[in-house]
Write a structure and sequence with these properties.
globular, alpha/beta, 10 strands, 7-stranded mixed sheet, 304 residues
């Protein structure tokens, strides 16, 4: 069945802040958030002013004062008036409630909800940003490996090839063919293991441990998560790699002013009321949530 391509200009008209300069951003605490921050800093001069891991918020004093100007990057924050770009499943079906109107999310744009979970967006926030701004990855092996490692995009191509092909059609006019060339081969996996994973292990002090294993060498799709309380050097090290191989000027780390603990919950989709989900979460003031499988939804309450 043919898919409907998304239109860049329509997305920019709906979310004009995607082209703004000098915005303030709060980012996720994983590789996708860090690479997205480096991209936005280099191309649009955005500044990192905090981190959020869907449980805890680390925020700078400047972000406290300018919270209305914040963009939440690689995060599906659903507070009224907050702008965000993320890619989790947020609905049960194609209907999108008004409370999610400020979230640029490919699943919302394509009308994909939990009832169609196998067709969810299979890539990363950084790949969505690259497609939107029509910026191709440098023709450099390490640059390509860095981009493909974010949110295990290359492993998703191996395991869910049909869905990734459909999403390449939904996101037209981009050099997907080169980016995903031979990712389902042992040769590619050896390069990923020896050239990128070895560097990430030196940076974090631990081998990749999470995600679906790759098809040939059973490599893991590590997301290089870090804790801003004591692992900021991991973020700085990843930004240095992005500067070296992607040629993106690294952003500065924010000076954290306040740490706010949220309350994280998990429930089953069977327990929610289809007629009122996710409006009931939005009306209750949930800060962020995500449907993480066809059976489960995670959400966070956070007082800020």
């Amino acid at each position: 069945m043919p898919v409907r391509p998304l239109n860049r200009e329509e997305i920019f008209q709906r979310f004009p802040w995607l082209q703004d300069r000098e915005r303030l951003m709060v980012i996720s605490t994983d590789m996708d958030g860090l690479l997205s921050a480096a991209f936005l800093h280099h191309h649009l001069d955005w500044r990192v002013t905090g981190y959020y891991d869907c449980s805890t918020l680390w925020i700078s004093e400047h972000a406290e004062e300018q919270r209305g100007r914040l963009i939440w990057v690689d995060l599906d924050v659903c507070r009224s008036g907050y702008s965000a770009i993320g890619h989790h499943i947020l609905t049960l079906d194609t209907a999108v409630p008004d409370g999610l109107g400020n979230i640029c999310n490919p699943n919302l744009l394509a009308g994909i909800g939990a009832h169609d979970f196998t067709h969810k967006y299979p890539f990363s926030t950084i790949l969505l940003l690259l497609w939107l701004h029509e910026i191709n990855v440098r023709r450099d092996l390490m640059a390509r490996l860095l981009i493909l490692q974010a949110d295990s995009a290359w492993i998703n191509v191996q395991h869910f090839n049909r869905n990734t092909i459909q999403w390449q059609q939904r996101l037209p006019a981009y050099d997907w063919k080169w980016l995903f060339k031979q990712v389902d081969t042992e040769q590619f996996e050896r390069r990923m293991r020896d050239q990128l994973h070895a560097r990430l292990e030196r940076l974090t002090g631990a081998p990749p441990t999470d995600g679906n294993p790759s098809q040939h060498l059973q490599l893991q799709g590590s997301q290089l998560r870090f804790n801003p309380d004591w692992e900021e050097d991991i973020a700085l090290g990843l930004w240095e790699l992005a500067g070296t191989y992607l040629k993106w000027s690294p952003p500065a780390a924010p000076i954290i002013h306040r740490r706010i603990e949220g309350r994280h919950y998990t429930t089953t989709l069977e327990s929610v009321t289809p007629e009122t989900f996710p409006n009931d979460l939005l009306e209750e003031g949930v800060f962020s949530y995500a449907v993480t499988s066809s059976k489960r939804v995670n959400f966070t309450r956070l007082d800020w």
